Amino acid sequence: MLLRSPHIRPRGVSGAALSVLAVCATLAALLLGVGAPQAAAASSLPCDIYAAAGTPCVAAHSLVRALYSSYNGPLYQVQRASDGATRNIGLPAAGGYANAAAQDSFCSGTTCIITKIYDQSSRHNDLTIEGAGGAGAADVGAPADALPVTVGGHQVYGLEISAGMGYRDDSTSGIATDGGAEGMYMVTSGTHVNNRCCFDYGNAETNNKDTGNGHMDAINFGTECWFSPCYGQGPWVQADLENGLFQSDAGHSKNTSDTGTGPLPFVTALLKNNGQNHFALKWGNAQSGGLTTTYSGGEPTTSGYSPMHQEGAIVLGTGGDNSNGSIGSFFEGVMTSGIPTDAADNAVQADIVSVGYGGATGSTGTLGPGSEISLRATTSCCTGDYVRHQNNAGVVSAITSGSSSLDKNDATWIVRRGLADSSCVSFESRNYPGDYLRHSDFRLYREPMDGTALFRSDATFCPQTGKSGTGTSFASYNYPTRYLRHYNHNLYIASDGGSNDFDSGNSWTADVSWAVSSPWAP
């Protein structure tokens, strides 16, 4: 039986026994080729599943939910800028979802960063902001409100990493060392990635430096192709085993069908390594379907990887030597003692899918926080045009019932409390979690929230009665005489008259007036 520290309610024997029975039923169903029952997935969470399969979690990190059905402790800690005070964000009930309302209340009127991510296992392998390493200066904490998301029907927050952010624990318990076997997964996003080193989660060096081949064993996710050839555009699930991001024993991809996950908003990324002569990589859509194995075979043929030489630290968001130029998203992840069975991996993926990452918020068509909307132009020429993103730029284009799913998703936004002022609003992309509509040099773009004061201001708009007498106009928070406007199918913040073409007074009042409508995306 696993116990947490005294300030967390221990898991009772009877609860553990019930969890084991439910997990066994789930595994049996999978082995028989039958889909896992929804009830079993709901009552048996990832670490229950892995424990029942004989490979218990030795680290379990999540900002969004419990990873044990009986866990009732803190998920993460936030620190607010106004006075430096901290608060743990936990669960309203055991086995549930993060109490994001507690964060919203604590951080109201100021900003917060995430300072600690708690390990839900009995090992206490908590992650704190990473210090300096061989390849990077000390990191900073991620903004606590950058990645709002719906999980299990609840409004919660994920972790959005920008360059220079990262978390680590260099003094751990139970993590594999010196060729020990382990497995790990994380739920991340295929829409917030880059080709810089290294968005990792997993086993790393204890001194924050590169100590040689085989001294890491971590999942990497991004578009960096370390060993050519890589196929497609990525992002790819790779193994950071130190001094290389490996897609096979040769380093480069041997799998021409592994072209990456593409821009899926939620991805399950999985790595298993016996520490001696075999590792495997898998990925899945965290919203539907099963897992795909992209590699299963020998350790890298270069010296130092067979056997492995893991040191047992845990890293999140950077490379083992704190190479911290990467970006990425993190919602949950675990590390296990021993290699989980494929059946256990499949059961965990079924549970992740059952959670409903990125589901509907439950509110539509208003400017209330959490409401999903589309913004329709009201100018007589363009009443079928909607605000959307396209190739990162903000534009308006015609959307109809016959439009593609991609177009409908691109034209759907989630209303969030204004990032710079909670009395105003910000617009989060429906299909690019953590990306917001913001202006730069007066043009509108879809970009990931980086936590800076400038981004917060650029992505905040204050609603007013429509300047044309209908609909709603949105004043720029940091340029209050400029309003969200469409001009020649592009989006700007525009004044009524000025030296720029998009400031033209012609039809200005209509162009800055918008109808807030129900979302095009379901």
Q: Which oligomerization state do the chains in this entry correspond to? A: single chain
Fraction of residues in H or I helices: 10-25%
What's the mean pLDDT score?
93
What shape does the CA trace take? elongated
- Any idea of the CATH class of the largest domain? Mainly Beta
Class by SSE composition: alpha+beta
Distinct helical segment count: 8
Strand arrangement across the biggest beta sheet: 3-2-4-5-9-18-11-12-13-14
**Rg:** 23 Å
Poorly predicted ranges: 1-42
Largest sheet geometry:
10 strands, antiparallel
Descriptive report:
With 522 residues, this protein is α+β, with helices and mostly antiparallel strands. It folds into 2 domains: 325 residues, Jelly Rolls (Sandwich); 146 residues, Trefoil (Acidic Fibroblast Growth Factor, subunit A) (Trefoil). Helices cover 13% and strands 31% of the residues. The chain contains 8 helices and 32 strands. The strands form 9 sheets. A 10-stranded antiparallel beta sheet has the order 3-2-4-5-9-18-11-12-13-14, covered by helices on one side. Strand 26 and strand 27 form a beta hairpin. It is elongated, with a radius of gyration of 23 Å. The two termini are 43 Å apart. Keywords: Disulfide bond, Glycoprotein, Glycosidase, Hydrolase, Signal. This is Alpha-N-arabinofuranosidase. One of its GO terms (biological process) is arabinan metabolic process.
